[in-house]
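User: Fold this; tokens only.

Assistant: Input:
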Amino acid sequence: MKKAYRVKKNSEFQEILKTGKSFANRELVIYYKEKPLQTHFRIGISVGKKIGNAVTRNRIKRYIRQSFIQLEDLVIEEIDIIIIARKPAVDMDCKQIKNSLIHLLRKQNLLLYK
């Protein structure tokens, strides 16, 4: 995933967490904030230390990034998204994480096509 598609700065993370809307299922929490005039969506991923060791956390982040690469054409453009993984995400493979993300994005109407 290109760097332009990522939320990197802590100040941007905090702004989205404080002022954005949130929605969750068992595995993931999504915070999102609309950004008018933005040419593409941006994502930030957070996987806490309680989830597991570094290998496990990086694997979950890789799966989330891969899912967004596959969903790139379907996600609305004018939005910043923060994804926080929960403990059940440890036991999931890439396809399951993608389905969980699709479920959350559909619930909040963040996909172009229903």
